[in-house]
Design brief:
The protein is an alpha+beta fold. About 25% of the residues lie in helices and about 25% in strands. The chain has five helices and nine strands, in the order ααααβββββββββα. Strands 2, 4, 5, 7, 8 and 9 form a six-stranded mixed beta sheet that branches. The protein has a three-stranded antiparallel beta sheet with strand order 1-3-6, with no helix packed on it. Strand 7 (about 165-175) and strand 8 form a beta hairpin. Helix 1 runs parallel beside helix 2 and helix 2 (about 30-35) packs parallel to helix 3. It is rod-shaped, with a radius of gyration of 25 Å.
């Protein structure tokens, strides 16, 4: 494999990985421009990148400069790399960039009777406010798992909760993260459940 074909393979790999993260990229762009775009995956960082090192004015110096720029931009996106990593390894490391998430839990009621349904809705978005579709969200009461399913195209999922016992119930949901998104826990919701006494039970007592 020639140097030119190897660099072209790296360019294609960078384009593929950037595109998978929602960044517009093209094979017609220079490697330098594509490496710079790594810095814009989660959120654009406008501060200019200045490398203090002086590189040789040959292909070896160009590759060294690209590698260092790559590592700096990956680090700004939360990915740790090694100074021994080559451009191929670094281009694959784009896939390790993950978006932070915000998980919100809401309830249609703050109090209910035993056996009465309370509708809980969890909504998962990324740091830019975009809905996260197809993510597994778990509903919990304390440490007990109540329900688990995936979010829809609005990043939402609902669960109909009810309890057979009275008291204040602490409810929360969680997302454990996946290949593209970091884990997050929702806010805590307390629902007050009141015991219902049936007429037969009242007469018998």
């Amino acid at each position: 494999m020639t140097l030119e074909s190897e660099l072209e393979t790296i360019r294609t790999n960078i384009v593929t990985n950037l595109t998978s993260k929602g960044v517009t990229a093209s094979n017609t762009e220079s490697l330098n421009d594509l490496v710079g775009k790594v810095n814009t995956v989660k959120t654009p960082i406008t501060s200019s990148l200045v490398l203090k090192e002086t590189y040789q004015n040959d292909i070896s110096g160009v590759v060294d400069c690209l590698r260092d720029k790559f590592r700096i931009n990956l680090s700004k996106q939360g990915v740790t790399t090694s100074d021994n990593d080559g451009l191929t390894t670094l281009s694959n490391s784009i896939s390790l960039i993950k978006f932070d998430t915000v998980l919100t839990l809401t309830s249609d009621k703050t109090s209910a009777s035993t056996g009465e349904t309370v509708t809980l809705t969890a909504t998962l978005v990324d740091i830019n406010g975009n809905a996260v579709n197809g993510a597994t969200v778990v509903f919990m009461e304390g440490n007990t798992t109540l329900y688990s399913s995936i979010t829809n195209n609005l990043g939402a999922i609902s669960y109909n909760y009810s309890s057979s016992s009275g008291g204040t119930k602490s409810l929360q949901c969680s997302f454990n993260g996946d290949i593209n998104y970091n884990a997050s826990n929702s806010n805590l919701i307390n629902v007050n459940i009141t015991n219902t006494i049936s007429l037969d039970s009242w007469i018998n007592n």
